[in-house]
Amino acid sequence: MDTILRHSENRKSAPRRGRFADFIRSSQLRHAAAYVLITFVGLLLLNLYAPMAIRNLLFSSQRTAMTDKAQLMAASFSSYEHLDAETVREVVHSVNDLHTTRLLVTDPDGRCLYDSQTTGSAEGKLTLFPEIAEALSGTDVVYTRYKNDLFTSKAAMPLMAYNRLIGAIYLLENDRDQAELLSSLQKTLFWISVGIEALIILLSMLFSMLFSKRMRNVLQSVQRLDDGDYSVRLPSRGNDEVARLGKAFNDLAQRLKQSEDVRKQFVSNASHELKTPLASIKLLADSILQNEMDEATTKEFVSDIGNEADRLTRLSAKLLELTRLDSSPAEERQAVAVAPVAERVLRMLLPQARKQGVTLDLVCGPAETVLASEDDLYQVLFNLVENGVKYNRPDGFVRMTAETDPEAVTIRVEDSGYGIPNEAKPHIFERFYRVDKARSRKAGGAGLGLSIVHDMVLRNRGSVTVEDRPGGGTCFVLTLPRPAAEREETP
Ligand code: ADP
Fold this sequence. Notes:
Distance between the termini: 49 Å
Bound molecules: adenosine-5'-diphosphate
CATH architecture of the largest domain: 2-Layer Sandwich
């Protein structure tokens, strides 16, 4: 008790962890952080890969366009054996505008015959561009570069006529439009990614906080339940895990409350039942001590004290039996012949039956065998026959019969006693229930015998019912499985 008190005090005085600290430690936050990280990596890859793929596409289209233009121009010179500035100018003008930034045509020595650029023209000078040098050595050169928001494409080709080198052409193209398109695409993609990531962070935090709040609620409710507050309930709207947890929690709290109520009721009934014989004993003992009484009366009082003590012994035995039924697992069931057990019960109760003028009768063949714990079967039959004797009339009888069908063995315990009124029948297996309290108490009962019968029969997978006996009295019908029938059922 002391330990329990200290334990609960400790828990109350323990500093409550802040909600923020709880949230920081919550698994939900870790999940949210994982989502944010995964989406961040995904968006980062998209930002790197998408512009790179588009740039490569533009590179290849720029190169193809430059090659086409250079080849077109080179083809225009293929019918000339020798090139001079005049001829080149005429040919260039005869070709449609190629939309290049600069066009150069040189002779085989690299001297410039035509330059489309007027300011700083290279005409008449030796052009020392490496691309032209390569073209004059017979190699085609085409490449595109992207730098400072600008695509720069260069192409150089040898000019051949009748298998002879007559010069080289050089094309330069600066494309800012495509570069700007690429750069704006990059920027748009970046800002969309930032927006998406911000939204994901916001939603993740929001959902984590909501989930954490619900989980905190669950934990607090568990704590309250642990502290003995069985009225606590969780909201169970929705169908997600927390709602399902809430439903399971509510069911558990409900069941705990019921079993707590049953326990309290049991304790209060048991105390009441124990109090009555103890009070009688005290009263009788006080009377003996205080009053001058003759020997015969004293003996009578002492005998009454003995009877009350017997009642207490019987009551505590039954209480112990019920506690054992509640706490310990069922004993192993085995094939038990009914007849020997029933005979033992009748032998034990014969003196009591004789005292009350009740005859005991057994109709049971040796073949009747049930699958049950032998001790349980003995106790069940004992309680039923004892009741048959207790609640009987003088010259009455108690008869036990057993019949077997393919499924089960049916044992009937009939008596010619007072019978049980219909309104009491649904309650007679409840603990501490007595039909006629005065008569039952006189008979030494506390309303526990039939509840023990009920619990024992159930744990032996049987059933017990009560009905009126035709011609007056009560008939308890007990059904227990046969060993073979149950084995056939179990695959
Ligand atoms: P008790 O210990 O009081 O006999 P039980 O649980 O065995 O308790 O029985 C509950 C009540 O059912 C009894 O108080 C009695 O009123 C009634 N009862 C049980 N068996 C019989 C019977 N064979 N005939 C009439 N009444 C019975």
